[in-house]
Fold these 3 entries.
Entry 1:
Amino acid sequence: MPEPLTWTLAVALILLGIAGSVLPGLPGAPLILLAAVIHKVYLPPYLSWWVVAALAALFVLDCLL
């Protein structure tokens, strides 16, 4: 996937995820986690797996609460 397309997709998913944190019906945490995974897979040097793991832990915590 070309780099500008990857950045655009990741940013769009993050913004949707942030909106989903306050708007009912939009899954906020899963969208943010999906954006982080897409970003890590297609643009590896910009994000560590530790960040993805931390976001996954927050996602699990969000699902439990």
Entry 2:
Amino acid sequence: MAPPAMADSANGTLSYQSKSGPLQVIFSATDISGKIKTCATMSCPDGELGAGMTIELSPDSRLNYWFVGNDQRVQYSGGARREALILTTDSPQRVSGKLAIDDSASGGIKANVTFDATLAKQYSDR
């Protein structure tokens, strides 16, 4: 299992159809790496994420994800097939690749993200 990562560079969009119309989140420059480094558990930094997405990388055939927007007033969690994530680098120091999920037909998110991340911390609680 790869540890959670803080992206050095990422670009793309996440969108979710809210009751008031489309809500679109573009990855921002908000840096929560300090919180990630001081947290003892993997779920700890979730409270710092106001707009974005976390993905749980596990040996299972599914990717579990959690999307938040509008300072966590909008939330959606789901799962995607493992093929939705293509890693081009997967090492103890770095992970990079592309994530493509489209659960919009069932009321979920649509994500198309390219990333290149230095791993900030490895958690042992999962």
Entry 3:
Amino acid sequence: MIALYDEMKKRITDITHSQYAMSLLDTIFKRPIFKSSDLAKETGIYKLTATGLLRQLKEAHILTELQKSSGRRASVLCFPALLNIAEGKTIV
């Protein structure tokens, strides 16, 4: 898990070029399955900024969308690399 954290620290920083990269990384390691709206609340990142960062991580295949957003319902995302390590098998 430490190796994954170190790898993701570099990748997420390189992908997003954001001052929020470490906060984002720490949050997805704490909760590898989350609602997109919860991420903004937990990190304190503005909702529009968080949406853009999550889009970048989905496009880079770091995050996977488990449930699409619909109306006022937020999307549900997961961090499959961490889930797969924790479970010891490929989950997502």
